[in-house]
Amino acid sequence: MIGPTTAYRKVSLNRCLKKLVSCVENDLTDDFLILLLNAMRLVLAVDSAYHRNIENGDEVFNAALVFANSEGSNAITARFEPVRILFIKRQRLRVVRGAAKRPDVEVTFVDTKALWEFLLSDDPDVFAFIFNNKLQTRGNLNYLMKFGYMANHLKSFAMIG
Amino acid sequence: MILLSDKSALRSLSERTLEHLPRLRRLKAEYMDIINGTNGKGVEVCIERARLITESMKASEKSDEPMVIRRAKAISHYLSNRAVQFLDDNLLAGSTTSKAMGAPVYPELLGMSIWPELDTISTRDANPQKLSEEDAQTLNLDVFPYWIEKTALERTRTRLAEKEPEKLVALELMERVSFFMNGGGATVSHMVPNYQDVLKKGLLKMIEEAHQREVACAEEDSAAAKARAEFYQATKIAMHGILAYAKRLSAEADRLGLETIKEVLEKVPAHPAESFHQAINSLWLCHVAILAENVNMAVSPGRLDQILYPYFEADVSAGKLDIDRALELIGCLWLKISDNTNLVPESAEKMFGGAGSVPAVTLGGIDDQGHDAVNDLTYLMLSVTDLLCIRDPNVNARYCDGVNETGYLDWISKTILHTRAIPAIYNDTVVVESLVNQGVELADARDYAIVGCVEPTTSGCSYAETSAILLNLTAVMDLTLNEGRRPPFKLGNRDRINPDFVSLESIDTFEQFLEAFDMQLGFLVDQAVDLANALGQAHCEWLPTPLLSCFYVGPLQSGRDLSAGGAKYNSSGATHVGFADVCDSLNAVEAFASSYTGDESPFELMRDAVAADFVGYDEVLDFVLHRAPKFGSSGSKADCAIATRNAQWLVNRLYERYQMKRNCRGGAYRPAFWTMTNHAGLGQIGRALPSGRRAKEPFSSGITPVSQTAKDLLVAYESIGALCWQRRDLGDPLYPIPGGIALNMKYTPVYHSLDDVDYTHQFGSIVRGYFAEGGMQVQYTIQDYGTLLEAKQHPEKFPDLIVRVSGYSAFFKDLNEAMQDELIARSQYNLLASRAVLLNQYKGEAS
Lengths: 161, 847
Known about the structure:
Largest sheet of chain A: 5 strands, mixed
Largest interface: A-B, 30 and 35 residues
Radius of gyration of chain B: 26 Å
Strand content of chain B: 5-15%
Number of helices of chain B: 34
Order of helices and strands of chain A: HHHEEEEEEHHEH
Radius of gyration of chain A: 16 Å
CATH class of chain A: Alpha Beta
Number of helices of chain A: 6
CATH topology of chain A: Nonspecific Lipid-transfer Protein, Chain A
Largest sheet of chain B: 7 strands, mixed
Oligomer: heterodimer
Number of domains of chain A: 1
CATH superfamily of chain A: SCP2 sterol-binding domain
Structural class of chain B: alpha/beta
CATH architecture of chain A: 2-Layer Sandwich
């Protein structure tokens, strides 16, 4: 077996989801985005149905999404890309600190709460975000739409309300 | 007139109810169940088109076929393989989607905006649209990924990044929503096709003609001839798709024992229509096919009373058709036209919700020779509108004073008073002159029809793209007051949206302020036009319309697709939000600057007051609210002169700026003033204005004066008339609003005399007076403050209350709160007194 076992990943996932839920329910610290992306990365690894979002037969999802706060610090890149382990090529999510060059879409947000509301709120007021400059996007919004679907779908794993 | 030539026949028609037309009564009940989500029904997302079109486009991805043929094959693949169903006992075959009322998905435009909501769209609070889990997964895994880089918007972004990176600013501004929006990304299909040819010739003949032209192209050896041949080939493929759909519908009708429908389908649309029923069904099937290719946004059937009249007349003369059967068939068409709605994400639903797909039908007026065109069908179609009283189609009545009989205007008035909202009325004199002024031949101008909300365009020969631009005029005022900035907006790290600006410190006079405003206006118009043209280019290259091109005068003659400028006339529309608010803001700045005697700059003081939402600036607020002139209001002669001058300046400046521009098909931009629900939505996120409008309040609708300001009904009408048709001492009159207006008026219902002949006549007389002043269009909501307030509190008590938004009709309960509030706050006029009943006055009396 190459890499962590599925059982190990599930344990990691459960821990990550608990932290994510705690983060959302309590103070929405700056860790929120990393926790969300790590949860997504782990669910992609253990749940084959969810994995189809980035690898569906011959169709693979290659994209780089950059999330950054308005000061431009603490940028994080979510990169969906193939990884080859021996003879097996598999699509995965890689979470990288720092902003990728030429991402498909770039999201700049004023604070973590704005990002959480944008991605996971049941009642998002997208226009208010944009107008009040709480959130700026640059690039192909369709990637963000897909990411939004995947993030929302995580709720069923994490039981985030 | 052959059936309704005497008063007793008209009286008999006016006495018809749905009780006399049981089929329509049943169909309407089913429709209302869907609209209200009762009896297990509701609006559903239909993915069939998206799935089949995507399937075909994927299959041809690696072929070397030109895009026009790939698109034609995709449309034909969908039409040939889609479900054929008869879901109710409507007399017409064919449906826009596979659902009783479906929201089709157009992933090549903005369909992907529902991607994050695939799990929740069925259960959201505002106007839910049902989507099965299986269909959601098909969209998520099979459909949307293919289009992620291929939408009109993304094709445009890629092209601009590669070739014109300096124009990416326009795209960024558009994506901020509140500067301007471009229909090229989502709603390009605003148009009126030509259905006469298919009714007269049938599709087989049209295919044969396209074939002959293709053969002729083969004799030439040039790249242009090859492109024309490919275009003709594509049109043939697309038309064969319609025939395949009709053939399968016919087989299904046969299987179900629907003999009459089967007989109709054996004839049309392949062959010329020979009866009223055949003509209606042929037209409907072609309309369905057009929606297979083009987004279901304001694809407008046009002058149906004119197009269908020869078939009606022949059937009546032969004794094959009576009034009830004709009403039944028209009603079936009305309900078919209503069988689809837009796919709307939740965020947009909150901002802009409540619309149908706004297919406009136009009735009455004059014919291409200038003669009275009102006929039996005009009356019958108005009667069906009255009987059904549903949101779509968006019915519009043309009226030409001195040519049309006043009895016809009375019939329109009566229909409005009964339905409380429908139809809108158009002044033929001003509309025709406005179109002629745009270079349209007189006969074509006289044959105009309305597109979508209120936009007049020549029927079947003008690709008018009337929703190309929706520009927020209040953003121009913000940029002027803030020296090119619009806090809190930034472009990247740059807070100055327009690097060119005039410092308020340097402004001493209102004229200088107006110049500064004009500079910002020019900046935003340039940006909006640049992007509209880039989107138009993307449509031409990537989303050609071979099927729609078959139903137009021009493309089949020239061998050029509509998107490439194949139509006889090519123009683009640019409409504006916040017109009256900005007029009143200019009036306020002018009055304040001339009255202010303090040490500060009045312009900087105004900027500071607006930035603070007038908090701490009570005196400024009091001045602008009570002492500054208001557009549409009576007042001192000097005030009226200021208000009229500033309104005319703004209208004329927009006209000049847009008319200088050319779209990518070579046509001019035509300014307009209609707002749908955008004035309420954008108002929610708008800052305060010098007019005294506070932050987050709705903007004014269409070209209508700001609510609660214009107290004298006749003065309000005169003010609008003075904009649409400007008489000048020297030279020809000016018609500076060729794109159309929405004037939204609210009248107090007169419950005790609804059928009162005098009241109806008075209603029509006021319209005639307004038209004589130059007014182009008017539409009504006949409701009072109390009813609308109660309907907001208790929507369940008013499931079918119809109102006029700013261009189309909507069920009040479906509108977002901001739009409901705007409708409530609209000035309510007592027609007999010609005065406004103000909301405060009403509330005082009510308490």
